[in-house]
Amino acid sequence: MTVRVGVIGAGMIGQDHIRRLTEVVTGAAVTAVTDIDAARAAEVAARVGAAALPTGADLIASPDVDAVLVTSWGPTHAEHVLNAIAAGKPVFCEKPLATTAEDCLRVVDAERAHGRRLVQVGFMRGFDPGYRQMKEVIAAGAIGTPLIVHCAHRNPTVPESYTSVMAAQDTAVHEIDVLRWLLDDEIVTAQVITPRATGKRFAHLKDPQLMYFETASGVRIGLEVFVNCQYGYDIQCETVGEEGLVRLPDPAAVGVRSAGRHGTAVLQDWKGRFADAFDTEFREWINAVAAGAEPTGPSAWDGYAATVITDAAVRSLETDGQVVTVDMKPRPAFYGGTA
Length: 339
Ligand code: NAD
Ligand code: ISE
Description:
This protein is of the alpha/beta class.
C-alpha cells in the first residue's frame, strides 16, 4: 500500500521532507501540499505531481490524503494537529508540537479521546545511529548507572531573527527530548547561565548559554548551547556512569593529510548531520502508517514534556539563572505512565 501524504508548510524542512518521502522512502507519495504562500505551494506541489490546496483544513479533509505532515511555523502546529486527530488521520508534526503547554495538552486530550495514538512529533535524534547505540549501551548496563551527561549543541551562526529564548525553545529542545529517551528518566529542574557573550553575534542575543538539568533519579546534565561558534555544526554527548562512559561518535568522514596537517571536515548544518536520522524517522513512520499501526516515535506526551521543560529553561534565563522546577502533569497511562 502506498501512503498518500499531505504536507502543510512547504518551507525549508517541508521541502526536504517532501524530497525524502518521494525519493528516499519507499511506500509513500506526496499527493497534496498547502502553504499560506500559495505560489510556493503550487511550485512545490508541481515538482512532485501533487495537488496544491488552499488551506490546511482542505488538505486534511481531502480523500486523497491518508496521513498528514505538518511543517508550517510552530505557532500553527496545534491547529493542524487537532484537525488531523478530528479527521482520524495519522499526523507527523515537526517540532514543536505546540508553542504553549496548554496547546500541547489540548492535543494530548484530543488524542486520548480518540483512543489510539495518531501523533508523532519530529524529534529525530532518537533515530540517529549514534544515539541508538548509546541507548543500547546504557540499557545493557555496560557503563553502570548513569550519573552525569555532558553535551554541546553548536551551530556555526544564526540569523538576526533568532532570539535568546530560542536557545532553549528551538535548539536545546533536541537534547531535552533525546536525553529523556536516552536515560528513560524525567527532567525535573532547569537552570540557564550566561557566560561572557561572544562578539560574533547579533547584539540582542545571549550566546553562548550554559544549561543545567536534573532528572528525577538525580542525573545531572550540563549542556552548552553556542549558536555562533563559527566553525561548524557540532553535536557532542557523553554519558558518564558508575562503571564507564559512552560518547556519541562524530559522523564518519575521511581523514585528509595535506600541507603538513591531518584533519577531517566538520559538517555545517543539521540537515547533513542528521540526514540518516531523518530518513530512518520517515521510513519507520510510513511503515507504521502503512501497517495501520500506532507510531513508535516521540509522542504527543513527549511534545508536551519538551515544551514544559523548555518553559522552565526560559524562566531561568529570564530570572538570571535561578533553578526552576519543571511544572509537568503526571504522565497518563495512555502514554506509558501511571496517571
Ligand atoms: P520555514 O519558514 O522555512 O517554512 C515554514 C513554511 O510554513 C513557510 O513556507 C510558511 O509560509 C508556511 N506556513 C506558515 N504557516 C502556515 C499555515 N498555517 N499553513 C500552511 N503553511 C504555513 O520554516 P522551517 O525552517 O521549514 O521550519 C518549519 C518547522 O520545522 C518549525 O516548526 C521548525 O522548528 C521545524 N524544524 C525542525 C528541525 C529539526 O531539526 N527537526 C529543523 C528545522 C526546522
Ligand atoms: C533548528 O531549528 C534545529 O532544529 C536544529 O536542529 C538546531 O541545531 C538549530 O539550533 C535550530 O535553530
